């Protein structure tokens, strides 16, 4: 039950923040971003919103009674957070003139966790075939 609530809460929060940050980036910051910054920011928002929906779908379709399902949910939650929010941190810090370079390696780590989540989800489907 805790894992379902975590997954639903994270999905709802990521969805809310994705819309908020997307609107903020498209309206309040569009004149401040360089082309590369705008593309990076949009990538963070896109991945965040996509995985918010994935988390909500998973929370209503998985029972989270097996460790595998728990790992899937946690990989998507942590991966989304690390991937998207490290991009936001890089873009915003660069706008302020002091790019937080330590976040550079965090983005691919988040992407790796997203890949792990997808791979585990695929494995959970295939494992039921045999």
UniProtKB/TrEMBL annotation:
It comes from the Bacteria. PANTHER family: TRANSMEMBRANE PROTEIN 256. Pfam families: DUF423. This is DUF423 domain-containing protein. InterPro entries: DUF423 (IPR006696). Belongs to the UPF0382 family. It is a multi-pass membrane protein. Signal peptide: none annotated. The chain crosses the membrane at residues 6-26, 47-65, 71-91, 103-126. The keyword Cell division does not apply. It is found in: Membrane. Keywords: Membrane, Transmembrane, Transmembrane helix. It comes from Robiginitalea marina. Coiled coil: none annotated.
């Amino acid at each position: 039950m805790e894992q379902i609530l975590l997954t639903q809460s994270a999905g709802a929060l990521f969805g809310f923040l994705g819309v908020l940050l997307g609107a903020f980036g498209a309206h309040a910051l569009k004149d401040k971003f360089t082309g590369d910054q705008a593309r990076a920011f949009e990538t963070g928002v896109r991945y965040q919103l996509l995985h918010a929906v994935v988390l909500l779908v998973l929370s209503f379709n998985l029972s989270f009674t097996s460790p595998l399902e728990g790992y899937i949910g946690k990989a998507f939650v942590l991966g989304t957070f690390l991937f998207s929010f490290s991009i936001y941190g890089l873009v915003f810090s660069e706008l302020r003139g002091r790019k937080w370079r330590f976040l550079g390696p965090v983005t691919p780590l988040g992407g790796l966790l997203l890949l792990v989540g997808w791979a585990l989800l695929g494995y959970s489907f295939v494992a039921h075939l045999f």
